[in-house]
Amino acid sequence: MSARIELQPAWVLHARPYQNSSLLVDFFSLDFGRLRAVARGARRAGSRTRALLQPFHPLLITLVGRHELKTLSAVESSHAAMSLQGPRLFSGLYLNELLVRLLHGQEAHGDLYRSYQQAIIALSGERDVASTLRRFELSLLEALGYGLNLEVDCRTGEPITPLGHYLFLEDEGFERIAHVSDFPSHAHVMFTGAELCALRRCDFAEAAHARAALRLTRMALQRLLGEKPLASRELFLSAHPRA
Which string of b and e fits 126-141 if b means at least 16 CB within 10 Å? Predict the structure, then answer.
């Protein structure tokens, strides 16, 4: 990679204190994927850099350095920051945490970058939160090489139909079963064809379809995230104990 990355479109995913007065920042960039950089002096009082290095603020960044850890040379706003409130804020933090946890450094994901940008714009507006999250989760799984084939039976190649019942098989897809009663211990990995077709269309008007979509994407992502819980989810539950 070049020793200098000039005016790269990027979003802040996470920032934490580093040394005496700096920040260690994870960015999601258009052409280079996840980048980590030191923002020197960003924690000093009155720092303009610190004011810009906030989540949900589209930026143009310039980085220098030949190694994986870069130095932030310049940063400017490319657009006004997005305002996320309440559950929409926690949802945005959830998306950021997924990217920090699951993306390898310095791997380009242009389509995922655009999906993330669309999701943040949607969360800052009136769009339904659940459908916004499910769309992004599907895009993320696809970018990581774990996309869900919601079109055909992984065994027969026959189209997934609304009237069928299917088992979710990790690394394979969905297999149609003739009798649900034959799999009493597999309810957690069983989905109706109607639920899968609704997810394929990103149609969550029916509550049952929305619940099934959440169950499936959470299951698919959990195997990649491992046992460590998501901090954004715990933060949301602490703020909304009845959720």
Answer: eeebebbbbbbbbbbb
- Domains, the chain, ranges and CATH? 4-77 (2.40.50.140), 86-145 (1.20.1440.120)
pTM: 0.91
DSSP reduced 3-state for 6: strand
**CA distances to 167, 182, 194 from 185, in Å:** 11, 9, 21
103 Cβ contact partners less than 8 Å away, ≥ 6 residues apart: 28, 33, 34, 109
pLDDT in tens, 10-25: 999 999 999 999 999 9
- The full DSSP string for 85-110 is -HHHHHHHHHHHHHHHHHPPBT---H
pLDDT tens-digit map of 128-140: 999 999 999 999 9
Question: Over the chain, what is the mean pLDDT?
Answer: 92
Place of tokens 């700096």: 22
Res 232: pLDDT: 84
The pLDDT-based confidence of 240 (bands split at 50, 70, 90) is: low
Sign of CA dihedral 150, 155, 161, 167: negative
CA distance 74 to 71: 9
Contact (CB, 8 A) for 180 and 165: yes
Phi, psi of 172, rounded to the nearest 5 degrees: -125, -55
Residue 96 has pLDDT above 70, yes or no: yes
Burial class for 174, CB neighbours closer than 10 Å (0-12, 13-18, 19+): buried
